[in-house]
Amino acid sequence: MDKEPEVMDMNGASPLNKGLAVFLMIMSLLYTASPIDLAPDAIPVVGWLDDIGFLVTATMNVVQQFSKDQNSAMVKILKYAKWFMVIAVVIAALLLGGLIAAIVALIVK
What is the largest CA-CA distance in the chain? Predict the structure, then answer.
């Protein structure tokens, strides 16, 4: 079976990717406004980093998908910067989780 070619708009971006970018941006805004966080905002700096990380990553994704020229250098740079932010947020969350686990282990001892 042959796979149908993906429909692209005149700028070279997929409507599905654009819709997903908008959805992720809305979810990121809701997460930022929500009192429920991976890292509570009561912890200075660390609590704000996850909000900022999600918001910046979603913004870069929207800019990348809605760019007029999908072959421009900016879009290519945003592609890598976006994934760098995703990896940085995941690493920060893992480090925070490890730190919390270490503190709990010290307190329980």
Answer: 63
